[in-house]
Amino acid sequence: MGEVRVPERWNVYLAGEIHSDWRDELQRLIEAADLPVRFTAPVTDHAASDDCGVRITGPAPDRFWHDRKGALLNAVRTRTAIKEAHVVVVRFGDRYKQWNAAFDAGLASAWDKPLVILHDAEHDHALKEIDAAAAMVCRTPSEVAAALAYVISGRLP
User: For the CA atoms of 137, 139, 141, 146, what is the dihedral angle to 10 degrees?
Assistant: First the structure.
């Protein structure tokens, strides 16, 4: 058996809901654990994410094309960051239908990226297929941090 090569610095992509501070909380926990992690994420400014296409290339004739311009531009960032990630964490929150989070999880799975899924128990049934593709399903950012600490350093909390 060959030796496992692990990166000096881990790229962790934080996908999913943008309406809570879960990313900040996870980043604080990882920094406190002194783990070699570089986080990337989608643009979390909702208005900027929605309007980037029309702000850069001009107005669209209707909402479909407005949204499409933004989605195409945001996909450049999202796809690049997921492809470069060693681990993808996807948070499903309790607000809104989060198709973008499900799509990011699907891309990561298709590209054979390890997935850590984060959601409350109330979403277990709705997310059962996504959870089945994950290396781990967590309920809190502290569980995600502990999982990352173990994978990166071999240390248990």
Answer: -60
Beta bridge partners of 13: 40, 88
> 54: how many CB neighbours lie within 10 A of its CB?
16
Whether 23 maps to a domain, the answer reads yes
As given in the structure block, the two tokens for residue 134 are 């994950």
- 56: in domain: no
Residues 6+ apart with CB under 8 A from 85: 11, 12, 13, 40, 108, 113
Instruction: Tell me the CB-side half-sphere exposure of residue 32, using CA atoms within 13 A.
Output: 10
Domain that holds residue 38: 10-42+85-153
**Side-chain-facing half-sphere of 142: CA atoms under 13 Å:** 1
Give mean pLDDT in consecutive 10-residue pieces for the chain, a chain of 157 residues: 81 95 98 97 95 98 97 97 98 88 97 98 96 98 98 91
Separation of alpha carbons 97 and 68, rounded Å: 18
Whether residue 138 lies inside any domain: the answer is: yes
Helices (H), 21-140: 22-32, 46-57, 63-84, 99-110, 128-133
Q: Which two tokens stand for residue 35?
A: 């783990």
Residue 107 tokens read as: 């891309």
Q: What pLDDT does residue 50 have?
A: 96
